[in-house]
Structures are given as C-alpha cells and as structure tokens.
Amino acid sequence: MFAGLQKWLAMLVGQLPTVLTLGLLGGIAWWGYRWDWKVPTLPELLNASAPSPAEQRDEKKTQPAEQAKEKELPPIQLRSQAAIEEAGIRTRPIEEKLIDEYVTAHGHIDFDQNHYAHLATRASGTAWRVFKQAGDEIKKGDVLALIACPELAQLKFDLQQTLLMVKLRERYYQRLRNAGTSTPAKDLESSEFALREARVALSKTQQSLQNLGLHVSLDELSPLNDEQTAVRLRTLGIPDSLLQRLDPNAVTGNNLLPMYAPFDGVVIKRDIVIGEMVTPAAPQFHLADLRRLWICLHVRLEDVGRLREGQEIAFHLDGPNEDAPPTKISWISAEVDEKTRTVAVRAEVDNPQGRLRPNTFGDARILVGRQKRLIVPNEALQFDGASYLVFVQGHSPTEFQPRPVQLGPRHQEFTVVLSGVEAGQTIVVSGSHVLLSEMFKERIAGED
After folding, report:
1. For the segment 308-334, what is each residue's pLDDT rounded down to a tens digit?
2. Which of the residues in the chain have pLDDT under 50?
3. HSE (CB half, 13 Å, CA atoms) of 129?
4. What is the pTM for the complete model shown?
5. Of 201, 191, 220, 200, residue with least CA distance to 161
6. Would you list the DSSP string of 86-144?
C-alpha cells in the first residue's frame, strides 16, 4: 500500500508543471477578455507599423468630416460692387413653397367595360338584313340586323298550337263545371289536369321566345283568332318604324329574329353580311358608348402605398400631344401583375366631344400630396461637370460660395432643392454663369 501511494505522488509531481502552465494561460485569457485585448492578424504581425483596429475606427469616424472639408469649394471673390453690377449678378433669399407631389405612371385609354359589348345573335341562322355599319351611332333598342332563324319559326308555331290547345281545354273544362253534379268527378279532374298541362306547355314556349329577346303578351294574343295571331307573331319584335321601310311582300315568314342595341353608343366593328351563316359563338357587332371611357394605369409597386381612391389624375396623351380632362382614381387593384410587377389603377373620364380614342397611350401624374420645399430659380443652377451648384452670398457682398446641391423635381421656372442649402440663405439668381467662369479660371490657375 505504501509503495502505491509513493507511485501516485510521483505521478502528481510530474504533472505539476503542466497544470501550472494551463492555469497561467487561463488567467492570461481571462485578463485579456476583461480588458478587451485583440489578437493581431497575420498582416499586422508582418507589418508592425499598421494601425491598430481602434486607430482604424477613429480614422473612419474622421474621414467623412475631412472629405466634406475637402469637397468644400473655395469662395469666389469679385473685385467690387461695380464688377457685380457689370456682370448682371442679382441675388435673392431662398424661398419655401408648397409643392405638389406626384406619382407618375404609364397607361392607356380603354373602353368603359360597363358599356362595351360583343353582340352575337341569340340563335343560329342566316343574316337576312343588316342595317348598321361600323361608325354608325345607335340608340338603345335599335335593330342592328334581322336573322332568318329556323328555331324561331318553330317556336312561333308551337306558341300558336299551345295557345289554341289552352283555349279549347278551357272551354271544355267550363262546360264540365257548368254541368254540375251530372259530370263525373273523374272526368272533371282529368279535364282540369289537361288544362294545366296545356298552360305549362304555353308558358314554356313563351319563356323560350323571351330567351331569344322577344316579349310575348298572352293577354293580347288570347282575344285574337288564329289568323290574327299568326299575323301578330310574324312580325314579333320588329318595330313598326322598321316595318314601314321593309317590303311587305318580303316579310312572309315567321323566322325573322331581330338583334337589338343594348345601349346608346357607336358600332365599333361589324362582322356580318347578308346571306352569311351566324351563330351565338361568334359576335357579329362590337358596340361601345364613347361618351365615357376608362384610363387604365400601371403603377410601380413601390408607389402604390401613396395612392388613394379620389386622388386627382392628369393624363397626357402621346399621339395628339394634349391632355385628357382631369379625373380621379376610382379603383386600385388588390393584386400585382405577374409579368410587369405593377398594380392596375383605373379612372373614369368623360368624353362628350369624342376627342379621346381607346387604345391611345399616355403618361399620368397622380397628385398624392403637397409639402413645403426649398426652391431655386432654374437660372440660378449651374453644372460644373460633376454636380449642380448654386452660389451663396458669403460674409461680404462681393464673396460667393459655390455649393453643390441635390435636386428634386424640376418645374418650368424653378427646381426643388433637397439638400445643400437652407431656407433664408441668399443665392445668386441671375448672372451665376459669370461666377462659374471665375471658378473655372481659379481652378485652372491652381492646377498650373
């Protein structure tokens, strides 16, 4: 046992230097962490003269101020007040003005989709007469064309037949009822059922005619005899004013189906000729009311957040080089276009004189607000090849300091200044080109 203890103590003494070394390194590491020591990088070890990280941070902080100082242009000093007057230099304090802020967008004029129709016949047939051409003005209810439709002829014959059947069964049913108790109840019930069946068939035929756009008044037809009913149905739906223009000998069939104009407007396109087969699958007329149109805009996604319904829109047409009447936003889309990544915005515009034409492109300015901005006259701005400048009057009337400025929207007589000058500073508003020439002369002399 004693020999084992000696062996263990000898091993512990042998490891003591290692334990002390690790403890010392741990203490140094804790001390460095406590006082924010930094481990030098390889370039710093190779270049002992390189600045420390702290020195580099201090240097970065001072760079902007030094760069701004270096960018400050030297003042221009004129000889005397007489030299200023001779150069035509005039000064004025910088003003603030309420400036309209706009969002711009491309767009086009489009038909009002609430009054734009691709009109097709309600049943297949042959064009018998066509009364309207492309460009013709139309009124609601005008007949555009008459279609010879076999289906219509069959429906008119069915209506006559079911109407006659209803009349006969009504008379028979009344006779049985008037007979009183002498009529068996079974016969009376059968007669009543047959009458109801005939009335259902009549209503079905009447509804089929209404589906073709033809209104049938059974109250008007019931008192007529068979011949009178046939005459009335032959011209069903054709206005009297149109019948007077047609040859009575030509209108002999029961198959003429009118195509009506659904609203006031203009025929934009006609795709039908006499004798042509027409179907509901392909439109024969394109109609539009041009008195009111849509302005459809494509607004950048980053600008949509500034838009609201009711904001004013000024739309300038590309081709005619004129403006559309002022209007306001009426609708903003809830989705982004997959391809263009823009948002659709719409406005309605009156077009009583017909000056605006659908599919005309243009540019829109949407008024989104008004804000006070610094403005300078356009004549006060000069360009030195790198930036725009204005000349601010210095400590004396003959000293002028060139100031680079950041510009905003440019208007016809003035430009908005975003930075570089302050309100109330006096700047040169006329003759600034003379000071620009002097600045270039001093710059060239300094380079020599």
Report:
1. 999 999 999 997 778 999 999 999 999
2. 61-62, 64-70
3. 16
4. 0.66
5. 201
6. HTT-EEEE-EEEEEEEEEEEEEEEEE-GGGEEEE--SS-EEEEEE---TT-EE-TT-EE
